[in-house]
């Protein structure tokens, strides 16, 4: 007999199985009404989006390439070396850094140097050349340690600096070519020939019968003038003649002799006077006692007669005065004689000058009538012209810098981006393209977006790996085209025109390995200062009255129109102000 528990479990299991079978059958069987209901489209509902509060940033997206900026094609201004022979590259430009005074390439074995300067090389710079190009060359040489004064003139000091610069680089500065030396030699011979012709014609003129006596007379008068002038100069340099010097010397001796006699006489008289005034001390004085016998009194001293001596002094003084007057008279006579002699010699010089002038005039008049004079005049003109040509040529003769041996670049150091010629090729086109050493992003935007741009706007450069770098909008439109390879606005999709854009990174750190890669740049053209209410652009509709509105959902099936004022638009959203709050839902589209 089965237990009640087992009976209960079996009954429940049967009920469950029966229910399962019934459910399975019911899922497979539907009535026609159910099938129709399943195939009816759902009731149309509104598509809404929430009103958000956020800071809005508007950007212009630029797809471009990261590369070195300011590409500049480099062409040679003329020949390299001093010859116009075929210019062939013997060492091609090599990509890399271009520095001040560096060798860019070689043509026919001669160097092409790079130097900084805004004035392009356009001529051969040689001795005597002047200009702004010479001045900037001198500045570059000074910067390289070769002391050349910045005068703007290619002078000897600059030539020495150029020679030293070339030598330090392992080259020789360009010297005059064989053709130049031959040309200078031809000019020298032309001068010599002109001199010989003039000498021949002058000799023929001088040997003419009508001028020979006059020429001889002119020579004599010139010799007379020379002699007269020499005599006058000698007389002017000497104070007295030999005879006058002898007389004055004798008078001077007489004065000195008289002075000696006066001195002797005065000394004798003075001695006599002293003698007379001196007491006689030949008898000594002694003291005796009263009782002694007194000594006999001394005899008086005899005085010297000075009359004769005084007479001698007077006569000596008179002789001295006479000698002095004689000396003055002789000296005055010599002075007057000198003045008279100079006057006569001066007149002789004037007469000689007049004679020379008369002879020269006579000779000129005679030569003016000579038929040979025209030949002499023409020979003189030919000689002057030949000398002028040679002097002009010599001013530019010497060490030069051919136009192709120097390339002035606006800014150095620079970067040689690519070579335009290979070794062995003729140099008849741009030899290289140089760029700055700074990176830029070159790209383009639709012309309609350029109204939003202005130089200096902040930007962000984003690489394919997602890394970003801060940047700045440097240029756009025509200005950007001048700084890139763009020659004119490009055509975008569907014929829409586009404008070139130039964006410069704030820092080049981490960019060196990305040169030539495609990047995306976002230029910030507008941003709100704080967080604002925004809605999708598709939520804003313009009514017939021209006012902007949005439809705000107030219940699942009901909306109301709210008038708004729009502001900045960015990333498919627009700033709005009005009777809205964050979290409201606005209708984007409906069915």
UniProtKB/TrEMBL annotation:
The protein here is known as Peptidoglycan-binding protein
Q: Which InterPro entries match?
A: MFP_Cation_Efflux, Peptidoglycan-bd-like, PGBD-like_sf, PGBDSf
* Top-level lineage group: Bacteria
Swiss-Prot/TrEMBL keywords: Coiled coil, Transport
Species this chain originates from: Nonomuraea roseola
Ranges for region Disordered: 271-303
Ranges annotated as biased composition (Low complexity): 278-292
Recorded hits in Pfam families, A to Z, give: PG_binding_1
- Which segments does the entry list as coiled coil? 313-396
Domain Peptidoglycan binding-like per the UniProt entry, residue ranges: 131-165
């Amino acid at each position: 007999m089965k237990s009640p528990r087992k009976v209960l479990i079996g009954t429940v299991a049967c009920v469950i199985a029966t229910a399962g079978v019934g459910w399975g059958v019911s899922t497979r069987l539907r009535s026609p009404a159910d099938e129709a209901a399943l195939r009816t489209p759902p009731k149309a509902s509104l598509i809404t989006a929430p009103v958000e509060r956020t800071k809005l940033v508007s950007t212009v997206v630029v797809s471009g390439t990261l590369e070195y900026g300011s590409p500049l094609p480099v062409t040679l201004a003329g020949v390299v070396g001093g010859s116009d022979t075929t210019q062939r590259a013997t060492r091609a430009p090599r990509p890399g850094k271009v520095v001040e005074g560096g060798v860019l390439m070689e043509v026919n074995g001669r160097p092409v140097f790079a130097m900084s300067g805004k004035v392009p090389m356009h001529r051969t710079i040689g001795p005597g050349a002047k200009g702004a190009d010479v001045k900037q060359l001198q500045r570059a040489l000074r910067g390289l340690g070769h002391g050349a004064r910045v005068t703007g003139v290619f002078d000897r000091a600059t030539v020495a600096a150029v020679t030293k610069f070339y030598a330090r680089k392992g080259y020789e500065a360009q010297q005059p070519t064989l053709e130049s030396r031959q040309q200078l030699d031809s000019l020298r011979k032309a001068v010599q020939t002109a001199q010989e012709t003039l000498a021949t014609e002058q000799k023929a003129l001088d040997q003419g019968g009508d001028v020979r006596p006059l020429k001889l007379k002119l020579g004599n008068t010139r010799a007379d003038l020379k002699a007269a002038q020499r005599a006058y100069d000698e007389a002017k340099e000497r104070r007295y003649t030999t005879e006058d010097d002898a007389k004055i010397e004798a008078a001077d001796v007489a004065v000195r002799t008289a002075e000696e006699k006066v001195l002797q006489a005065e000394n004798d008289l003075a001695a006599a006077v002293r003698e007379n005034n001196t007491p006689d001390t030949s008898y000594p004085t002694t003291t005796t006692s009263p009782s002694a016998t007194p000594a006999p009194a001394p005899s008086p001293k005899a005085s010297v007669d000075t009359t004769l001596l005084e007479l001698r002094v007077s006569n000596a003084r008179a002789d001295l005065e006479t000698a002095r007057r004689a000396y003055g008279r002789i000296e005055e006579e010599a002075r007057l004689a000198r003045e008279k002699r100079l006057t006569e010699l001066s007149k002789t010089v004037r007469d000689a000058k007049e004679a020379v002038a008369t002879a020269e005039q006579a000779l000129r008049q005679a030569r003016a009538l000579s038929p040979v004079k025209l030949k002499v005049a023409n020979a003189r003109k030919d000689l002057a012209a030949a000398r002028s040509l040679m002097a002009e040529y010599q001013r530019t003769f010497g060490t030069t810098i051919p136009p192709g041996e120097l390339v002035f670049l606006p800014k150095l150091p620079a970067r040689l981006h690519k070579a335009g010629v290979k070794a062995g090729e003729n140099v008849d086109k741009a030899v290289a393209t140089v760029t700055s050493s700074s990176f830029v992003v070159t790209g383009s935007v639709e012309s309609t977006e350029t109204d939003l741009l202005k130089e200096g706007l902040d930007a962000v450069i984003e690489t394919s790996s997602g890394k970003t770098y801060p940047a700045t909008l440097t240029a756009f439109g025509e200005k950007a085209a001048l700084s890139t390879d763009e020659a004119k606005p490009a055509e975008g999709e569907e014929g829409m025109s586009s404008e070139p854009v130039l964006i410069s990174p704030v820092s080049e750190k981490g960019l060196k390995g990305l040169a030539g890669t495609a990047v995306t740049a976002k230029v910030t053209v507008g941003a709100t200062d704080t967080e604002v209410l925004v809605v999708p652009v598709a939520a804003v509709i313009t009514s017939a009255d021209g006012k902007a509105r949005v439809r705000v959902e107030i219940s699942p099936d009901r909306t109301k129109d709210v008038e708004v004022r729009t502001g900045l638009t960015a990333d498919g959203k627009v700033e709005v102000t009005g009777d809205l709050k964050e979290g409201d839902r606005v209708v984007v589209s409906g069915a």
